[in-house]
Amino acid sequence: MPALTPGLLTVRWLAPPDIWLNPVIPLRDNIPSRHPPVVNYLLILCACATFLLQSLDPNDSLIFRFSLIPARLQQPDQPLVIEKTREIQTPFGTQQLRTRLEIPPSPFPVQATLCSCIFLHGSLLHLVGNIWFLWIFGDNVEDRLGHLPYLCFYLACGSLASFCHYAADPGSTVPTIGASGAVAAVMGAYLFLYPHANVISLVPIVFFLHLMVIPAPVFLGIWFLIQLFQGSFAAGAGEAGGVAWWAHVGGFLSGLLIALLLGKSGHTSARVTIIRPGTDRHFRRMSSPWD
Questions:
Q1: pLDDT tens, position by position, 113-162
Q2: How far apart (Å, rounded) are the C-alpha atoms in residues 164 and 244?
Q3: 0.90 exceeded by the pTM?
Q4: Which residues make Cβ contacts (< 8 Å) with residue 108, sequence separation at least 6?
Q5: What is the CATH class of 12-86+95-287?
Q6: Domains of the chain: which residue ranges?
Q7: Residue 271 pLDDT level (bands cut at 50, 70, 90)
Q8: Residue 106 · residue 117 · CB < 8 Å
């Protein structure tokens, strides 16, 4: 496989390309964890370690081998060749350079890339955006589900989110990477498990950032509607705009549904502590800047 040059490899992200593109930036919630979120820490550490390995891989072989490529999943027994066309400037004007890349096979059954892709990221901002949301919401979901069930939940919902992206564009040859399908599932579960929680957020108003306390259902509902709108718009435009929006939608709904089923079956802890404004000095200072 030839070495890739900058701009030659297009990667579809399972996350918005920049955390600052979100209209509301969460800082923390008011639900303290009763137990150390060991699994959540390990997931974050694993994502960071994998990103470090990616930075040491000049040929992007990790992305090719472990990312979700819908066309490869659709026809796992056939070799996959991607043709890339880019424009280059020459003394004779602009010319198009066509390159053929033969994608190396996955080291395990190609169906497993539905899960392995969630540990890869396209840039440092891509990584930070995902682990930031996981840091805020994941510890509480792990607290309610338990360590091992939370790990199974994260991996299963991440795979379901990847499958939703595959179902939306099964013939795509664009490598798809990112954890936010799984992170979206964590957010969906959080919505069911903590409907009375608040999220302290930075909200851009005109040219300034303001600290505001937003009910978790409002924050998560706005986030979900943005993903749904963007996915519908991308489908109508015939392109995904570089972001796997339907993975976000599918992940959020799968997390919400699984949490609902677990809650009805009694497999989640019912004890929840909520820090109210005025009972925690740090929370009060952040939630009321005018105090």
A1: 999 999 999 888 889 989 999 999 999 999 999 999 999 999 999 999 99
A2: 9
A3: no
A4: 116
A5: mainly alpha
A6: 12-86+95-287
A7: low
A8: no
CA distance 102 to 36: 45
Q: Phi/psi class of residue 108: alpha, beta or left (left: φ > 0; alpha: ψ in -120 to 50)? A: beta
Integer-rounded Cα Rg, in Å, for the chain is 21
Position 7, amino acid: G
CB-facing half-sphere around the CA of 107: CA atoms within 13 A:
7
| CA nearest neighbour of 220 among 263, 188, 247 | 188
| CB crowding 143-180: b at 16 or more within 10 Å, else e | bbbbeebbbebbebbbbbbbbbbbebbeebbbbbbbbb
- Distance, in Å, from the CA atom of 180 to the CA atom of 251, rounded to the nearest integer, reads 8
> What amino acid occupies position 118?
I
Tell me the one-letter amino acid at 123.
S
- 20: tokens are 């600052």
pLDDT-based confidence at 58, cuts 50/70/90? confident
* Distance (Å, whole) CA 83 – CA 64: 14
With beta carbons less than 8 A apart as the criterion, state whether 213 and 28 touch.
no
